[in-house]
Design a protein that fits this description.
This protein is an alpha/beta fold and 221 residues long. Helix 5 links the parallel strand 5 and strand 6.
């Protein structure tokens, strides 16, 4: 996926690195030219010097072709303007804005920016919810991020079709707590037989998320 990150501060740099690790194509926009040189040396990303609240700069960075535009500068007003331009002027597929002051969240949403976050990790989760073959979604974070409650929908060609839950090799630290099928919620046990489209809700350690995604995203050969 093609990602544009507006803001090359510590948050933007960390976000760009996380996205690159996940094999996304990243363009990073930063006002400070000296900072741009530093970022270009440290990251395998396209770095554009300029103001992300400027239409011409966003155009040059490829906002019209972007799968997601993320405004994560240290100034909430700049993030709001960049997000509004990406959404209104460029019709970006997905727009995410960071708030440095949580009190601004409602203002951003009232002005038409629904995806507002205050954490780099949550930005990545918002992006990957749409690209995830197992449709993994974060429901809640536990113990300051050490654990999570997540939901996962089995693909139509899941490798686990007609298999019992006890036969799924879940990563350590994972517990399935409910199953939703046809709009009905049940508490599964080891003998529960899985079907395509089943939504599993689990408690998992944060470090187990990738492994869990791989397991439940497995499909038939």
């Amino acid at each position: 996926m093609r990602m544009i990150v507006v803001g090359g501060g510590q948050a933007g740099k960390s976000l760009a690195r996380l996205l690159l690790e996940r094999r996304h194509e990243v363009c990073l926009i930063e006002k400070d030219r000296a900072r741009c040189v530093q970022l270009a040396d440290e990251l395998d990303a396209a770095v554009f010097p300029g103001d992300g609240t400027n239409v011409e700069v966003l155009e040059a960075a490829g906002a019209r072709r972007a799968d997601c535009v993320m405004a994560v500068t240290g100034v909430d007003q700049d993030n709001l303007v960049a997000a509004q331009l990406a959404q209104g002027h460029f019709s970006a597929k997905k727009v995410i804005a960071r708030v440095n002051d949580p009190r601004n969240t409602e203002t951003f949403q009232a002005l038409g920016i629904p995806n507002v976050v205050s954490s780099t990790d949550l930005v990545v989760q918002l992006i990957e919810q749409e690209a995830d073959p197992a449709h993994l979604h974060l429901i809640a974070s536990l113990e300051q991020g050490k654990g999570e409650i997540v939901s996962m929908t089995l693909p139509y060609n899941t490798a686990w079709e007609a298999m019992a839950l006890k036969d799924v090799k879940f990563p350590q630290g994972t517990l399935v707590i409910s199953l939703i099928r046809g709009g009905e919620l049940t508490i599964p046990n080891g003998s529960t037989v899985l079907r395509p489209g089943d939504e599993l809700v689990a408690v998992a350690e944060e470090k187990s998320r990738r492994a869990l995604r791989r397991v439940l995203g497995a499909v038939k050969d």
